[in-house]
Amino acid sequence: MRDELDRLGDEGLLTTIRTISSPQGAHFVVDGRQVLNLCSNNYLGLANHPALIRAAKDAVDRLGVGPGAVRSIAGTMSLHVELEERLAAFKGAEATVSLQSGFTANLAVIPVLAGEGDLIFSDELNHASIIDGCRLSRARVFRYPHCDPAGLDSALVRESAQAPAARRLVITDGVFSMDGDLAPLPDIVAVARRHGAAVMVDDAHGEGVLGDHGRGIVHHFGLTGQVEVEVGTLSKAFGVMGGFIAGPRALIDFIRQRGRPFIFSSALTPADTAAAIAAVDLLDGDDSLVRQLWENTDYFKAGLRRLGFDTGRSQTPITPVMIGEAGKAQGFSRSLFARGVFAQAIGFPTVPRGMARIRAMISAVHSRQDLDSALEAFQEVGRELAVI
For residue 13, what pLDDT is reported? Predict the structure, then answer.
């Protein structure tokens, strides 16, 4: 392991893990100094929103700090039921079930939807949690070209002919976390329908960002009721911790009986659950933070492009600044940090070799001055390192 760590360092692939000692705001304290936050998934600034803090404190006062058990034994609290009902109404789904994270939500639902002898068709750039969930299912997995409905159609034709009786499941991220692009969901749904396949969308980076009041990519494309399963997270735009699955009531009931992370791992804490309810209520009643997020996103991206940076194929607040080599991206990140801007470098194996980038994450709580300061720092470092 030491040799491998040395190799990662030599290749510029060793991740620097910094330490945060303040709330997740537009600015925060990192490794002892205050910097501009262009790193976290706190899209709407809810991670330290007063309404969520009050809800969490009240829940601790009433119910304590821990659930005490798994959901299927003595860990299901009235707050869990309330959150799941609120999420179902918000998403326009028959039912939802909450879990410890978006990662465990994928591990819970995919093996329930498909098993040995079944077929899964997964976008080649899907998140690691989808990849792991597919492996656990023991189904045969076919990776179709990224965001390519025609490639998906060809794979479904070919593999369905060889296993006509198998269940077929198509899985895609809604928003792809490294590039910020959107799945072409209407076309994917149309292809799946032609082949009798179900569709599952992991909308971790779309919840709170896309659609009316942040209801997600399914709502954004007007497909409510046409996508069988949605997986979401509470740890990004919702600002808390946890994940959920939304879909038909029979599926949700079955996950409560057979979903391994639900059965064998403790429930969300009272504080997390109450704060998540507050986040759903806030979003349902007011979309001003979602609108501000997009205003900030458009302004920052336009500024980067005007300076000559390549922001890839992003269609969302996830803003990759393409650098190329991992070592150079790491150096770019360090130079930004020296100027008071925290934006992390992303390299292999998270992205392919030669496609390292700085991933800037925009939030509704960034001011125009924050964004201008960030653009100035990017310009200085970009010229210093001959990126622009």
Answer: 78
The answer to whether 263 touches 67, Cβ cutoff 8 Å, is: no
What residues act catalytically?
Answer: 177, 205, 236
Residue 42 lies in a domain: no
The pLDDT of 184-205, averaged and rounded, is 97
**pLDDT tops 90 at residue 28:** yes
pLDDT in tens, 325-347: 988 999 999 999 999 999 999 98
For residue 230, give both structure tokens.
């949605």
Q: Is residue 315 part of a domain?
A: yes
pTM for the full predicted model: 0.95
Q: Note the pLDDT of residue 347.
A: 87
Q: Tell me, what CATH number does 366's domain have?
A: 3.90.1150.10
Is pLDDT at 165 greater than 90 in this prediction?
A: no
Sign of CA dihedral 70, 73, 79, 81: positive
Domain holding 360, by residue range, is 2-37+287-384
If one counts the domains in the chain, the total is 2
Same domain for 317 and 378: yes
Instruction: State the residue for tokens 């058990």.
Output: 69
274 shares its domain with 169: yes
> Given 226, 261, 285, which residue is the final one in a domain?
285
pLDDT at 350: 84
Alpha-helical segments (H) within the chain? 2-10, 50-63, 78-91, 102-113, 128-137, 149-162, 185-194, 217-220, 249-258, 260-264, 270-285, 288-307, 326-338, 368-384
